[in-house]
Amino acid sequence: MTSSLALSSRDSWTHLAPDLKIRPTAATSWCSVCDDTLCERCIRVHKRIPSSRHHDVVHVSGEAKVKVKTKVMCKVHKDENIKYICKDCKTAVCQTCCKIHHRNCDLVVEIGSEIPAMKTELRRNKEDLLKKHDEMKTHIDKQNVKVNEALTLYVQIESNIKSASLKAIEVIKVKERKLLAELKEISDKHIGELKADIKSGEMSVQMYQQQAELLDQTLQSECGMGVYKMYQGYVAGDVEAVGVTDVKEKRRIARIMFSQDTDKLSRALDDLQLGEIDVLYEGVLDLKAAPVLQDTINVRVAGDVRRAHSIDVTVLVVNGTDTVVVTDKNNNSVKSFYTRNSQLDHSSLSLITNPYGITKLKDNQVAVTVPGSSQIVTVQVNPDLVLLSTITGSKEYRGITSLTPSTLAAGSDSPPCVDILDVAGHVLRSIFPDHPSRYILKYPYFLCTTRTGNILVSDVGSKCVVCLTPEGDVVFTYSPKGDTALKYPLGITSTSTGDILVTDYHLHRVIHLTESGQFVRNILTSQDGVKSPWGACVGGHGRMYLCTPDEVRVYTCK
Fold this sequence. Notes:
Elements: H1 2-16, E1 29-31, E2 36-38, H2 40-48, E3 57-59, E4 82-86, E5 91-94, H3 95-101, E6 108-110, H4 111-220, H5 224-236, H6 238-243, H7 262-271, E7 292-298, E8 310-318, E9 321-328, E10 333-340, E11 343-350, E12 358-362, E13 365-370, E14 375-381, E15 385-392, E16 397-404, E17 407-413, E18 416-422, E19 427-431, E20 444-449, E21 455-459, E22 464-468, E23 474-478, E24 489-494, E25 500-504, E26 509-513, E27 519-524, E28 536-539, E29 543-548, E30 551-556
Antiparallel strand pairs: 1-2, 1-3, 4-5, 4-6, 7-30, 8-9, 9-10, 10-11, 12-13, 13-14, 14-15, 16-17, 17-18, 18-19, 20-21, 21-22, 22-23, 24-25, 25-26, 26-27, 28-29, 29-30
């Protein structure tokens, strides 16, 4: 680079004084305005000339960063530099363009005059970029920490699952060893009895053989008295008795069998719970935040003959689509609402009488109580609704919740109880809680299942919330007095964090309780537009769904 610059400087001096024999001097600097290299003497001359004394002259070295002023030529007038900006047209132009095309524009300025403002804006952009750069680096560092924590947690949970599986297998192995020991004991006894029979028979065979030989000898004997005695012995039965041994015993084993209730075993395997993978999503319902109304779903659809009256609601994710399923009491139907092709769509399934409670059975199945006909129906959600089965019982159930894939809990008011049912509708047991008072339940119209598998009951008759184990034990009863008292509790739901939400129809509010049944706050009131709420449930994306008579209100709490 130095030799090239030196050559340029030498040529300049030769051009200025061709007759002078001056030894060439190496260039040491460069003028970005003149776009020429300068030696030390040229620099001094450059600084004396008024027109060039303010030019940007930089020292040239191997490590110097030379500021180059790029000359941008006009695309239309290719011999002219672009020196102006038309702020009206927001374009850079040359002088000729200004005269021809922009003479009527109000704001045509030199590029140089705008450079400070541009640089200020670019510095601001640079600061924003550096800030985002630092924020993203911090985010990446946090995510890396989370990755390591997630890997550690994965290993721990994997170990816990394997441990739970081994414990379950060991319980089965214990039962297997017990059955095998019992089988061996009975089988040994049976085989022993059979061998005793064989031994006794062999002894009888020997005795019969001996008696036959004795008879043969008697028959060949010429002694009349000997024949007579043998004859009298057989007539009296003495001789035969000698050779017969009665080995029969009481309660002898005839046959060993292994009976197995395959249906019961299948239900037990279905109900076998090693544990659950609880996922707390970033969009989970944050009950510390104030709920915000995000959407409303009008429950009345084409074909309804009466004004809609939504009772209970649940939410399923079907093929990646959030599907809201509602029971409409007045129109004797179950309805689903979902978004298809960016538009709200719906499906309606008519029933013979009014439906009431609803619960999720599987990812795309729900169970619905129909108290007027003493039925529970199962419905497939595609998200369009298809009737799967109808279970007819002896009670009019209203509240319903799924405990396991093969068991349900349903509430009846005649008599007041919570029944544990299998999916065929058979009552496995009835719960009549009698603590602390004899009649805790009167109208158990809404039920839900907690994350620990207990049953939450909202009883409008007793004006309380009861938490029961599936075996019937009372975990807690929420029936306070004063400002936090329940007046007409209906819908009830439990979140993935264990928190409990209860609707109060007459007080127009939704109450937040802890997992242990302690009052936290009124999370929604009439001031939030809540009027006469019925069923409630929580879904993904931090959403809460609330039934009012003619619509479902969708809230977000993030």
